[in-house]
Design a protein that fits this description.
Helix content is 27%, strand content 19%. It is α/β, with parallel strands linked by helices. The strands form 3 sheets. It has a 10-stranded mixed β-sheet with strand order 8-7-4-3-9-1-10-11-2-12, with helices on both faces. Strands 13-14-15-16 form a 4-stranded antiparallel β-sheet, covered by helices on one side. A two-stranded antiparallel sheet has the order 5-6. It is globular and about 60 Å long. The N terminus is likely disordered. It starts with 5 loop residues before the first helix and ends in a 5-residue tail after the last helix.
Length: 479
Amino acid sequence: MKTKHPTHFVFRYRIGIRSCFAPIVILALLASEVTSNEHPQPNVIIFFTDDHGSLDANCYGASDLLTPNIDRLAETGIRFTQAYSHTVCCPARAMLLTGRYPQRSGITTWTQGDMNGAAGRNMPLDEYTLAEALQDSGYTTGLFGKWHLGAHKDYGPKKQGFDHFFGLRGGFIDNYNHHFLHGNGFPDLYDGTTRVNAKGDYFPELMTERSLKFIDHNKHRPFFLYAAFNIPHYPEQSLTRFREPYKDLTDPARRSYNAVLTTTDHYIGKIIQKIEEHGLRESTIMILMGDNGHSEETTNRIRTNNHTSGLAKEYFYGASGGGYTGKWRGCKGTFLEGGIRVPAIISYPAGLPQHETRDQIITAMDWYPTILDLCNITRKPNAPIVDGHSVLPFVRSASLPSAYRGVLHFGWANQWAIRDGDWKLIGKTKSAKDEAQALFNLADVEPEATNHLQHQPRIVKRLLSLHQQWARNVKRQSL
């Protein structure tokens, strides 16, 4: 909203206010107008990292890892120790943008990856995303990076609340030739639905440059920037200068993974620096979260001749498997803690505590209602139900409990998990029948190392029943 011209107030003054009070009235009205229009709502930036290990930041205890910008976010905000996203990319992104369990969106398996391929699964347009809620409240919205909620041209970011989109519509790309690499591959770099040819240019640099220009263009009005990084996801193509600090690490997997994570941190820092240059740091909500745990997909290679990317057969593009989970077991693709527990930080100096930690459970669904609360936005009355909960109550008063009370649900394809307190039941659905496969206790000295399934039948029965109730409740319905 632009500041009105001073003559607007002169005109009102001349109608009914004596001239001796004119300077006072005009100055007061001008001051009021400037105050009310200078950042009437906070800006919002979400840094969503890709395949980010559960404890992979120096501020989370990864002492061998340099993440100065992520650490600075933690110093100026709240760091969460029990933050949950999902086990793979698509459901995590659905949770973030809808505030809902991905089952409600029908995001229960992989979405369409190639915009020019056969029509596949795409997030339904009747979902009311966080971007749409902010856009409807006057925010300019931009997504730079990874979408991965369905690549079809009739769906996608610009159909669901984003004014600007630049990046990949599918799951991952080589950072220099911008091709998806599984199978025979396909190109996947777009400005909206227009193919971009920038071969040789490093994608994280490209998406960050777009993010910085977006901030420059919108510095005088509220904006939502979704910086959806495609790293540290494989292929682990780090900037050369960030390999040097790790050259003496004995574990080659850790050397590779740390370098690409420090590269990710570097680009996060460039965006923070731009915000600070414009004097917007105090009035900007910044959220960092990973979409799932680190990857151990260490066997990915080009398997065909004449691959569309131009890469040779047997070219390796897999993960190193070098993520750090501390005492937790598991990785991406599992419902063990190392697959679903991720780093998460919120920093908003003008409105939230700084340099504090919260141990209460949060999920990726919670940022939707939290952001709307901080921006004083009310959702449309007919908008779909939101499953997430604002984190503000226990952020502002550390003694308050999480709204989840220890109960979490996850589902992907035919696999599912439920956590209730320290107990976690993991199972599969086969021929419409739910089968419990493992029961773990997170309070064990070695969490998720001992399967208690055979020795705790009553707990298994109770958790199985809770899972089935949840599955019925979140099944996709027409909106």
